[in-house]
Design brief:
47% helix
Length: 243
């Protein structure tokens, strides 16, 4: 690892959006720590692609819903140097109308997105504060902005991140730490083409098309940059005009 590079941790870094964020941050000169939970081999696939392109990277695996395990993993990572940016991209869907939703569906979705954010962000705040530099970006969803049937749990978890980010931004701004949210709309990926017909896309999205993971990554990379130092506590939609 090049010790002169700033280090960024991307939770859920092995999926479509997470992988695009990891690859772009690496191209822009970050040492990228690609996080996974149960599927470390998927994170290593992203790491291999970054390394082959000449980037600096490593993989890590831990369960964000386990506070003690997350803290222990972060302590090990911090031994190698500061983590200057956190992109909290990890999240899960478990959709159902609320009237028929099981309690475990509600709790698990909240646990990964919201409690996971606390577990991974809280230990990094004092190191960022001491360094007087930090970038925290939460990946949310247009569902948190305009709502979506069958996703009350998901929308609740993601919209809670909006309030958390706005409040944390106020706490950390004087220390050079920014906290923002990127809320994607319908993004191309392994499942979205099966979920939406072309006619639906044209009706739902003013731009008339899905977004790409690379377009989400561009917003995240900018918010992690020095040029975004005065953007703080904001929710930025990447959604083709949906809301």
């Amino acid at each position: 690892m090049n010790e002169t590079l700033r280090r960024a941790l991307v939770t859920g870094g092995s999926g479509d959006i997470g992988g695009a964020i990891c690859r772009l941050l690496a191209r822009e000169g970050w040492h990228v720590i690609v996080h996974a939970n149960a599927h470390l081999e998927r994170a290593r696939t992203v790491v291999d692609a970054i390394a082959q392109a000449g980037g600096s990277t490593e993989a890590t695996a831990f369960d964000l819903t386990d506070g003690a395990a997350t803290r222990a993993a972060l302590e090990r990572l911090l031994e190698a140097g500061p983590i200057a940016a956190l992109v909290h991209n990890a999240g899960i869907h478990d959709d159902a109308p609320l009237a028929g939703m099981r309690e475990e569906q509600w709790s698990r979705v909240i646990d990964v997105s919201l409690n996971g954010f606390f577990h991974v962000a809280q230990p990094l705040l004092l190191p960022m504060s001491r360094a007087r530099f930090g970038r925290i970006v939460c990946i949310s969803s247009v569902a948190a902005v305009i709502g979506n049937r069958g996703q009350v749990n998901y929308a609740a978890a993601k919209s809670a991140l909006h309030g958390a980010a706005k409040s944390l931004a106020r706490e950390m701004a004087a220390r050079g730490v920014t906290v923002n949210v990127v809320a994607p709309g319908i993004i191309e990926g392994s499942m979205t083409h099966e979920l939406f017909a072309p006619e639906q896309i044209k009706q739902m999205i003013p731009a008339g098309r899905m977004g790409t993971p690379a377009e989400v990554a561009q917003a995240v990379a900018f918010l992690c940059s020095d040029g975004a130092s005065y953007i703080n506590g904001q929710v930025i939609g990447v959604n083709g005009g949906m809301g």
